[in-house]
Write a structure and sequence with these properties.
Blueprint lengths: L3 E5 L3 E5 L7 H12 L6 E5 L1 H10 L5 H13 L4 H6 L6 H12 L4 H6 L3 E8 L5 E4 L5 H11 L9 E3 L2 E5 L8 H6 L4 E5 L24 H8 L1 H17 L4 E3 L14 H16 L1 E5 L2
Length: about 290
Amino acid sequence: MEKKKFIITEKSGLILEGGGMRGIFTIGVLDNLMDRGIRFPYIIGVSAGACNGLSYMSQQRGRAKYADIDLLMEHNYIGLKYLFTQGNIMDFKLLFHTFPEKIYPYDYDRLASSSEHFEMVTTSCKTGKACYFEEKSNPKRVIEIVKASSSLPFVCPIAYVDGEPMLDGGISDSIPVERAMSQGYDNNLVILTRNYGYRKPQKATKVPFFFYRKYPKAKEAIRNRNAMYNRQMELVETMENEGRVEVLRPVKPVEVGRIERDIDKLLALYQEGYDLAAQIEFESQI
């Protein structure tokens, strides 16, 4: 099979979709890029894509995989018990504090010294619109942003960035191709965590009346999320077919769920991401 070729220029962006534990596919891709020293001038990540993008930014190869595989096996950090103890489907204290501070310390110095731009996407509860943050120098704020980007509706509490209430970035901008282009990056590699042709159900998401009563715009964004996501997938596929964007995605329908705990499934999806990235030949013109 002839390898695809991607030429990295000053206008190249790397766009990382979320998807919870399906992000292990993205981790496989990013580990392959790090193994080959491939860097992009602009990276934008949503939810799990923001988490995984942080380890790519600090060039800590294997760190994100450790979080999704080793840490999960040791601590089993997904489950209903955390809803009762933390109001969260996952152990956020472990994931966003103990892990980056003690278990596998995050290299904030490397992040601060990096030349690449890295944006993380959240959703404002007040406006229901996407917010885009770039933070390299303040570790506390980095964690605030990535935690907010990963705070799934219904099963995670509202998070706060600069005192403002936020939820998962995937509610308002799941695949931020248009954001990248608005920032001047029109030569993009998009990493998706669903197969070609995937669409969410057409019907609106039901939001129980007792959720987000103070934030009607957030409720509206959650209700409209499926339609927004499907429009973005259609845009990406159209651009891909026209040769305007390169896309890496799982080949077959993904069996890994958003809060998957089956290690064998996770490892298989990681390897698929790694192997597909290996099929691309990169050339840098920077």
